[in-house]
Write a structure and sequence with these properties.
The protein is an alpha+beta fold and 405 residues long. It has 17 helices and 12 strands. Helix 8 packs antiparallel against helix 13, helix 10 crosses helix 12 and helix 14 packs antiparallel against helix 15. It comes from Streptomyces durocortorensis.
């Protein structure tokens, strides 16, 4: 029996770019693994369904180490500049390198540090919401007014980046995470790298009360510490990894509430009791990151009865995992009380060794933002259609979310 032919996602559903879930459901009904035909000669493999995604996320034969294994990839080009400075981080490594880097990062990025950020996140959120509500026309773009400035302020304070440099950091992170072009993206990283090098040198001489200073001086039980490039890479990863995803999380969560007014009313009626469950449901219903970062198969891998060949580039549909009816009852229903019944069927933060280290911070930000925004602005409503969209397989969401109150 021959394997099914490669499929074009737009052939399954021309609206895939704006709403991928119907196409994912079609694929899931056919099986958990599919070869996908992209533009030109591009080919990659897509994993759908909760159990298959969870299995793929933990399979050591699917490598994230593009520096060592990118030459094996067939069908798509390796990510650009993976061998340059700033790429020696956890997200581009496999065990045992990943194990060492994650252990060092976890020593500095502790639950206690995250919890200690709560008062400052609340303070920043209060100020942004206050400024937004001061608009005389009672209108704003939620991305520019709240989501982006909150994220960039929190991550810059976490890393100890001075106020005067944050506008430049936002421009660099915007261009690297949602590039307007390959050259512009490379130029942004080229500008960010020497800045971070200088910042690390300054904090080595005069440590502050920030995560980057702690990472510089963190030593594990075996006397290991991060190299200069690993420190630089970790700083860049912390800046970028949660940037677009956190903004997406806030904006997608608000749009889900707008699309389900009965759930919106329910949440407004009991913010303290329901906000934590609402955050989990937002993550499940429309995951901030569409697929996990691409992996390359270093040898043939069987998933769900189908063999993915060596050299295949594999994308794991985190968003679809939360919509799998084998895992979640009525998965297309948005229900903020779902987690109260123990239904936690999402992989929005991944699974296994690459599970997002920043997940507790993202959840904390979500609870504070939605609690504050809906308390201060109970009449929040959409103000027309959203603006430009990001519609890639890795990140999908709105660049603008116009609102009124």
């Amino acid at each position: 029996m021959t394997d099914p032919a490669a499929v074009d996602l737009l052939d399954i559903d021309p609206a895939f770019g704006s709403d991928p879930y119907p196409a994912y459901a079609v694929l899931r009904a056919r099986g958990p693994v599919h070869e996908i035909r992209g533009g030109g000669e591009e080919r990659f493999w897509l994993v759908v369904g909760h159990d298959a995604c969870r299995e793929a996320l933990t399979d050591p034969r699917l490598s994230r180490d593009w520096r060592r294994n990118g030459h094996l990839a067939t069908g798509v080009d390796a990510p650009p500049a993976t061998d340059g400075p700033g790429n020696a981080h956890m997200l581009l490594s496999d065990p045992p390198d990943h194990t060492r880097l994650r252990r060092l990062a976890a020593r500095a990025f502790t639950p206690r540090r995250v919890a200690a950020l709560a008062p400052r996140i609340q303070e920043v959120t209060d100020g942004l919401v206050r400024d937004m509500l001061a608009a005389e026309d009672r209108r704003a773009d939620l991305v520019d007014a709240l989501a982006y400035p909150l994220r960039i302020t929190v991550i810059c304070e976490l890393l100890g980046i001075p106020d005067l440099d944050r506008d430049a950091f936002r421009q660099w992170s915007d261009e690297i995470t949602a590039p307007t072009g390959a050259e512009a993206s490379r130029a942004a990283q080229a500008a960010a790298v020497p800045y971070l090098d200088g910042l690390i040198a300054a904090k080595r001489e005069a440590p502050g009360d920030d995560l980057l200073s702690d990472l510089i001086h963190t030593v594990d039980e075996g006397g290991e510490r991060m190299s200069e490039d690993e420190l630089l890479s970790m700083a860049l990863l912390l800046l970028l990894a949660g940037h677009e995803s956190t903004v997406n999380f806030i904006c997608k969560g608000v749009r889900a509430l707008f699309a389900h007014p009965e759930q919106f009313a329910l949440l407004r009626g009991d913010l303290d009791g329901l906000v934590a469950g609402a955050v989990e449901e937002m993550l499940r219903y429309d995951a901030p990151v569409e697929t996990a970062p691409p992996r390359v198969a270093v040898e043939p891998v069987e998933i769900g009865g189908r063999v993915v060949p060596a050299g295949a580039v594999v994308l794991i549909a985190l968003a679809d995992a939360g919509r799998d009816p084998a895992r979640v009852a009525s998965p297309d229903r948005f229900d903020i009380r779902r987690t109260a019944a123990g239904d936690r069927g999402h992989l929005a933060f991944g699974h296994g060794v690459h599970h997002c280290l920043g997940a507790p911070l993202a959840r904390l930000e979500g609870r504070i933002v939605f609690r504050t925004l809906l308390d201060r602005c109970p009449t929040l409503a959409p103000d027309g259609a959203p603006g430009d969209r990001m519609s890639g397989l890795l990140v999908r969401g709105e660049r603008k979310v116009p609102v009124r109150w």
